[in-house]
Specification:
Elements (H helix, E strand, L loop, with lengths): L1 E7 L3 E2 L9 E2 L4 E2 L4 E3 L30 E5 H11 L12 E4 L11 E4 L3 E8 L4 H7 L4 H8 L4 E7 L1 E3 L5 E5 L7 H9 L17 H15 L1
Parallel strand pairs: 6-7
Antiparallel strand pairs: 1-4, 1-7, 2-3, 5-11, 6-10, 8-9, 8-12, 9-10
Length: 222
């Protein structure tokens, strides 16, 4: 299991973004050399956890619980075959492109050590938006991505550190539950009845998704 690339993006103008200034940082490209990763601060204030990476719409993206976005190269390869075109590392706007990891099958609260220092913890899957659809240039992309059910994972920073392409990725903690990123994604998007099952992940779950699961359970109990 290793890190194939570390990808960062700069703010660029795009006709498809919902940002009021018409800019987005979704177009991320692999970089050479080490990149510092640290907790960026609360959502709405903090952006990306990666130095040099731009988050333009901090209302919906970035912050401590979405500090880093990871996608498996294997999932990009699968989409390449389906779409009939190449997808470079970073094509989904991911910060980390991995090899040998089932990212969407990982557990909420699972911790990865990347390189000698950095430790990350999985919080949730990525929900597709119209900016993502515009970036991909594929008709019905939000629906197709959702139906595929392999969203990649957002992670929070437990221990900061520097990383670079080629670093090993080691799973250093697996929690004692069965709540995967893919399950959490389905519960948040197409199968809301699954929300109570997410509570087994506890505080490791993204706070907004945890609140939604608790609310759903409360409504069912009435």
């Amino acid at each position: 299991m290793k890190l194939l690339s570390v990808n960062v993006g700069r703010a660029r103008s795009a006709p498809y973004t919902s940002h009021p200034d018409g800019v987005t940082g979704i177009d991320k490209r692999p970089v050479d050399g080490p990149v510092r990763v640290a907790a960026p601060g609360p959502k709405g204030v903090g952006g990306s956890g990666l130095a040099g990476d731009t988050i333009c719409h901090t209302r919906h993206h970035g912050g401590d619980d979405q500090a880093v976005y990871a996608v498996a190269r294997e999932d990009l390869d699968d989409w390449e075959r389906e779409l009939g075109r190449p997808l470079a590392n970073g094509a989904f706007g991911e910060n980390l492109t991995t090899s040998g990891l089932d990212v969407s099958g990982a557990l909420i609260g699972e911790r990865w050590r990347i390189g000698p220092e950095l430790v990350l913890e999985i919080t949730c899957g990525r929900i597709p938006c119209r900016t993502f659809q515009g970036h991909m240039g594929e008709k019905g992309w939000v629906r197709r991505f959702t139906q595929k059910g392999a969203p990649g994972a957002y992670l929070r920073v437990i221990q900061p550190g520097e990383i670079q392409a080629g670093d090993p990725v080691r799973v250093v903690h697996r929690p004692d539950h069965a709540v995967t990123v893919a399950l959490a994604f389905r519960a948040e998007t197409t199968e809301r009845a699954l929300l109570p099952r997410l509570l087994a992940a506890g505080e490791a779950l993204h706070p907004e998704l945890l609140a939604a699961a608790r609310e759903y359970r409360g409504n069912q109990a009435v």
